[in-house]
Known about the structure:
- Helices cover 25% and strands 34% of the residues.
- The protein folds into two domains: 4-233, Rossmann fold, CATH 3.40.50.300; 240-358, CATH 2.40.50.140.
- It has a six-stranded mixed beta sheet with strand order 6-7-8-3-9-10, sandwiched between helices. A five-stranded antiparallel beta sheet has the order 13-12-11-14-20. Strands 15-19-16-17-18 form a five-stranded antiparallel beta sheet, with no helix packed on it.
- It has helices spanning 42-50, 92-102, 107-121, 136-148, 166-183, 194-200, 218-223, 228-233, 269-273; strands spanning 4-13, 16-26, 31-35, 57-62, 65-66, 77-80, 154-158, 186-191, 203-208, 211-216, 240-249, 252-256, 261-263, 279-284, 289-291, 303-313, 318-324, 327-333, 344-349, 355-358.
- By secondary structure, it is an alpha+beta fold.
- The chain binds adenosine-5'-triphosphate (ATP) and magnesium ion.
- Magnesium ion binds at residues 42-43, 158.
Amino acid sequence: MAQLRLEEVTKVFGKVVAVKNFSLDVRDGEFIILVGPSGCGKTTTLRSIAGLEEVTSGEIYIGDRLVNDVPPKNRDIAMVFQNYALYPHMDVYRNMSFGLRLRKVPKDEIDKIVKRTAELLGIRELLDRKPKELSGGQRQRVALGRAIVRNPKVFLFDEPLSNLDAKLRIAMRAELLDLHQRLKTTTVYVTHDQLEAMTMGDRIVVMNEGLIQQVDDPQKVYDHPVNKYVAGFIGSPSMNFIDCALVKKNGNVYAKTKGMNLKIPQDKTKIAEKYINKEVTLGIRPEHISDATSKKSYEPGTTFKAHVWVVEPLGSEKLAHIKNEDDTLVARLEPYVQLKSGDTAEFVVNMNLAHIFDRETEETIF
Ligand SMILES: Nc1ncnc2c1ncn2[C@@H]1O[C@H](COP(=O)(O)OP(=O)(O)OP(=O)(O)O)[C@@H](O)[C@H]1O
Ligand SMILES: [Mg+2]
């Protein structure tokens, strides 16, 4: 086990800056998630840590050792890729023991390690099967096993679950976490799935266009996104963004559009006052909008009228796509709400959980 440190790492491919000034301290034993859209530099960051890419500038430390000039095989890292890349002609036992055999580990030692790891992963009965005789989930377990037997200082995972169907993905997610709790190996895990990011990481690193946007624990990223990008990326369905102006009336500040007039909570009026008459963006998560008839009471100045466009019943909840003048919003409602397409209804916003973003810089104001 070891901590991992990246200092101002930059990787340029020709004209593409894939990773820009990436600085991160991963604690010993931490499970950290890199998340961001396709092409934002996640794989490049992992490959740089593994030594499969030479960084253009910056420094990478594993433990206290600067590894920029250390070849991949001497970095004591194990990487698991999306396409497990098992050797098709070898059985599970030989796939798992391959790296150990290369390193001339004694045979009986290899046997002990492989069997113990197979036990840990629940694939003890599969040791003599070839990869083509395994299901996707079992293959994924073998790929994990191959990484675990090496007892590396750091695990690197690049979207290891994306080839699995939804149900298996959820099961493997739990297994990976359980495994991490037992092995406590420092782990960097890449995904573009924000749900995987929220549920798996001690901390999440949100990336966009090669740049780190925010590093925080999952709840902090959800509750206090640093900018509009992060706010829109984390959470599903995404946060609603509404261009508005902040106006003052009778000592209160309101977020005003053509069809809405929503009161900013008292504890935030001081900050909001600095933006009076400036253009800002209001951010409201779908789960913070409810149907007014389902509420016993609500604060004055927290409602708006909207036309119900489409309702999607999901069993445990209903997603309503609603229109207020030029703005279309998504609201996540209780499943028993009796709304249907074509209705006009009143909605309540939990303004205590709403955000305001600077429209120009897209930074969070609150
Ligand atoms: N070998 C390469 N040569 C040139 N450009 C590259 C190379 N590898 C990656 N890039 C570019 O660097 C950027 C980052 O790529 P990277 O593979 O790190 O993204 P990613 O976040 O892993 O995306 P995805 O979610 O699609 O896997 C992209 O614009 C990509 O086209
Ligand atoms: Mg990638």
